[in-house]
Amino acid sequence: MSKPRRGRPVSEQSPIEILKSLFPSPGKKAGSGEGGGGGSALSYVWYAGAAAALLYVSLGSFTSIEPGQVAVRVNNVTGGSDTITQPGWLVKLPFGIHSVYTLDAAPQTFTMRGGGNIDALNVKELTVRASDGSNFHFQDTKIIFQIRGEDAHRVIDDAGQDAGFVNWMRPFARAILRDEFGKESTISVSNPGNFGEATERAKSRLNELLGPRGLMITQIVTPRPQFNDEYEKLIEERNALGNQLEVIKSNLAAAETKRERQLAEVDRDRNREIQEKRTELEEALATAVSTQADTTREVDTYRISKVGEGQAELSAATRRAEELKGQLDATYRRRKAEIDAFRTQPIERVMERLGERLKGVTISIQPYADDSTPSRVKMEQIGR
After folding, report:
1. Which tops the pLDDT comparison, 63 or 113?
2. Which end of the chain is more exposed for a tag (fewer CB within 10 A), N or C?
3. Is residue 258 part of a domain?
4. Both 215 and 118 in a single domain?
5. Is 165 exposed, middle or buried (0-12, 13-18, 19+ CB in 10 A)?
6. Does any domain span residue 232?
């Protein structure tokens, strides 16, 4: 008795083999490997039906997402949803468990042009009433918008699974553009700077209103506003005057450039003269400094020599003064000794000495007495 052959794993089996294992042939005898003719035909019908069902389920479980599309897969059992922005194959469960909705996420253009509405993306031209009461219009206004991929589920929640979101552009765009451009006067709106600011304000407001609905405004293209014939003529005249003003500005700029060049030449010449004069003064200063140095050196030499001579003379005079002082001290001591000695001598000796001194001198004496007991003699020299 032979061993039964072990089957291969399910992962390695083909769909036909799986179907054969699920739906065995009814005419096949167990363990015998033989079957009847009627049972074989019925088994083929079962195989064909199962293969068709498997093929239908397999094809229905995949959805293709093309470039420029975004898909929203909704779980009908839990109510949840997820957004797929990458192109490729998307798996969904059959039998109504998953629902997949695809939307065109490529940039689209909403155009306001002409005198009537054609469809949701092509409507009549934009007419605006300015703040000063005048009217103007734009012949061809374009708004480029697209679905923001990660917010595609909001688009489906608000506008459904078709392209119903394009119907939002007409009321929002016309109202906001009229509002923002209506804030400008006829004169200011014809200025490209103010015109661009109004466009940016309108773009910001549109993104604020349409952003929560999953849309994004990428660009607003508006031509120059058109006015009535009279005002257009005035604009042309203003542009002509503006061109003349630009020519005048260009001439002024050229004159300013010429003036700056002439000033630069004058500055260059003046700087050259200043530099030459500075060089002369620096040379004169260097000569004066050199002369001053020579004079200072001569003066210092003369002063040193004179100071040396004066110090030598001072030293000699000092020594001479010390010698004279010694001599005077000796004379003083001698005379003092003589005086002291003279004081102790009697009056007769004094008179003798006095006579020696007065030898050859005639003295006229007129005696008088003012003291009865004279203690000294007063002499007065009257003449020789």
Report:
1. 113
2. N
3. no
4. yes
5. buried
6. no
